[in-house]
Amino acid sequence: MYTDMVDDKRAGWYRPTRFASSHPMPITEYGMVVRELRDEVDASLRQMADEIGLSPTYISAVEIGEKGITDDLIEKVIGFLRKRGLKNKEFARLRAAVDRTRRSVDVSELNASGRRAVAAFARQWTDLDRNARENFLKQLDIADEER
Q: What radius of gyration do the chain's Cα atoms show?
């Protein structure tokens, strides 16, 4: 498991500095919080995955930011944690972590050109009309959350 964490809240990511597996990978703020909450209720990722009907691989990919966080997933995770006795204040903390994770993109692995491209895209996204955004998302096979 993780021993030391480097906290970069600006990016919404936490990067372990030492791993048992020696394969460093980022973990989103959502990933950190949901793992802490699973530990609190003494549940493994596999137990949660089995109970909510998703694969452990998918859940792990969401926690490390390889997959996006869906509202359906969050509701299932909250339901799982609620059944195990977790209190409502922890759900507020989880939802806040979800929000911060959704608003962040880890660009630490990109070169300078890649970081500039991401920043330029983010600035220009709001200038696109709804139809142009929908067409772009279709090209990437991503659902439009604004519907």
A: 17
